Each structure stands twice: as C-alpha cells, then as structure tokens.
Amino acid sequence: MTMDEQAYTGSFPLHTPGKISKASPSDVRRKNRSLIFSLLFPTGQCSRAELGRRTGLSRVAVSDVVNDMLDEGLIRENGFETTTTGKGKRGTLLSIDTSRLRIISIDLSQDNLVQGAVTDLLGLPQQRMEIALGPDIRIGVDTIVQFVDELRSDLDVNRIVGIGICAPGVIDNGVIRASTALGWHDVDLKATLERRFGIPVSITNDVTCAMLTERFFGQAGPNLLFVKNDHGIGSATLIDDVPVVGEHHAGGEIGHISIDPDNGPECPCGKRGCMERLISATALRERMRQVPPSERMGIIRQAGEYLATALAMPVGMLDITDICVYGPADIINNTLLDAAQQQLDRLTASTFHARSVIRRCQCGADITLRGSAVSVVRHYIEEW
Ligand SMILES: [Zn+2]
C-alpha cells in the first residue's frame, strides 16, 4: 500500500453531504487532507505525531498532507508540545492559520440589511461592510455583485479561498430555488458570481449557517437539532457532523408545517396552525400586543409547548439529545425554554431514550455571517 492509498475510514467532520464516487488516489489524498484539517479546525493544536496517532495514517502520509497545507496557508506551525516524546524531542504544534487566507462572506438573512465581511479561516471578520435597505426594497443580484467587488478590492486574489453567501430559503447546489424573504425563485447566484469573479462560491441556507457556527464555535457536538426563530422559523439537523439537507434541499423548512390544522391561526399559505403563525417571534410579539400583560407569559409558555410537541418526533426518530434554539431574548427566554423542556420530557421520557435538553443558542449576532464563512472552508477542503 502506498501512502496515497492509505485512507482513514471514519467520519469526516467537515464532510459535504450527497457525494458518492469511486475513490481515486486523489480522492484518498483529499480525504486524508480533510481529516487532518478537521482535527485542527477550528482551534485544535496537534503535532504531526499526534495527527498520525489520531488518524492512523503513516508518518509519511501525514507529513505529505501537512507540508502542502502549510504551503497553501491553511495551517501554521505554532510552538512546541509541552511534553516530550520518548526520544526527548518536543513535537512542533500545528494549528489553523488565520493570518493568510481570506473569505468573503455575505449575509442575506437579515431584515432590511445586507451584511458582508472579509473573514479569516475561522470566520472572524477582519473588515466589514453593510447596506441598509429601505423597508420595501428587495435586494437584487447586481447589488450583491457590487458588494463582493468592493469587499474584494483591497485583497490579493490569491489569498481568497472563496465567497460565501448565506441566504434564507431552499438552496440547491448554488441555485436559490425559492426564498420568500428575498422574493427569489431559481436564481443561479453561484454561477453568476463565479463567472464574474473566478472564485469558488458557496451558497448556504441561513439556518444551516447558524448551525455550523453553533457546532464549531458554540457548545454543540456532532449531533444537533437547531431551530432559528425570528420573523420565520426554520430548523437544521446535524447527524455525525453532516448537515441533513434532504432529498429536495428543503430539509429544515418547518415554518409551514402545521401542528394545529383545525383550530390554529390562518396562514398566508392557505393552511391553519403553521409553525410560523403559531410560534415565530414575529407572530408571538403580535399576539402579545393584543392581550393584557398578565396573559403574555401564558402565550410564551404555550409557544414552548408547541415547539416541544413539534420536536418530539424528530428527537425520537433520530435519537438526538441536543436541541439548540436561536432567537431574540424577549421570545426565546427561560419561560419558553422551561415550558418546552417540561413538555418534551412528558412526551419523550422512556427507558431507551437519553433525556434531550432544549437550550438557548449563545452565539452572537454574527452567527449567520460566520457560518457562511465556515461553509466556504468546508467546500474548499472537500473540493480541492
Ligand atoms: Zn403556512
């Protein structure tokens, strides 16, 4: 077996779903690279010897991949191990290099605002830009092109890993199939931007972006149910570190799943009792405005119960114990979370399911912008 044929057979934390092909030597090399990168991403520090131990790859295979990644600017040497090896030699530590490569990340998921940044490989903004839109103004593709152009203007093109766009809606290989918030249908944003800039473009659903930030910079492990609740409500699921996008790329689009089809409030989609009408932050604020203050707590508690009722089935089906909810503090508060937890316990308690915990996401306002940069890194490592 040559070094190139030696491949790790476990799971790849930065794996992009839906790719099945026959392994060639370059595939094996890419997998080894992906694996080593994922052991260091985002904040790991390992020596070459430790990478070898943790991957099962030979010293030569590790060193081959590591040297390429050092040259490329993906990783750097960063001090020495504190303990010595048997031979009395301290290994050089490797970590992600945040100083050289850059990502252009743009977030289209905010209301009336487009935010953009040049970030490092950990998605931390090094330079920011934003455009405020009027209340009824919808963003067009040409505005995004101009925006990328401005963010790119001061950068050395050889240092740009890719452009990441975070967008609400159903996204199929870079084509925004349907986005109610943007008012877009079948917009091939990836092709347009790649033609214009000659840089790889990743377009990722906003809830998936937020979930990736929670996974890599928050408290989540490799299995997670993530719910984003603001003007609408969406979810994303991570299984063994692979986001589940679904057969038609609409996995997580739960806003118009009804949980009270007979008596729930009417929804513009034609049904009654859709999640969005029952428990989105916008809907809840509207309902609370219509009742005396003493009844508002009850509305939030009921929303928590609805949320848990909706999530009980995926929890049972997927055996996920970590449920993270991102949303504004006036809605996703302890009252809602306590009510949701009690309801979930009531619905799911059994001897063969570990207790699932519903918690509030602690990641800050850059959650989607940062996740979009992480998405670029994932694709870069996978498709190299
Ligand atoms: Zn609906």
TrEMBL record:
Family matches, as SUPFAM superfamilies: Actin-like ATPase domain, Winged helix' DNA-binding domain
Transmembrane segments: none
InterPro entries: ATPase_NBD, ROK, WH-like_DNA-bd_sf, WH_DNA-bd_sf
Domain of life of the organism encoding this protein: Bacteria
Gene3D superfamilies cross-referenced by the UniProt entry: 3.30.420.40, Winged helix-like DNA-binding domain superfamily/Winged helix DNA-binding domain
One Pfam family per UniProt: ROK
Region feature (Disordered): 1-27
Signal peptide (residue range): none
Family to which the UniProt record says this protein belongs: Belongs to the ROK (NagC/XylR) family.
Protein's name in the database: ROK family protein
Organism: Bifidobacterium aerophilum
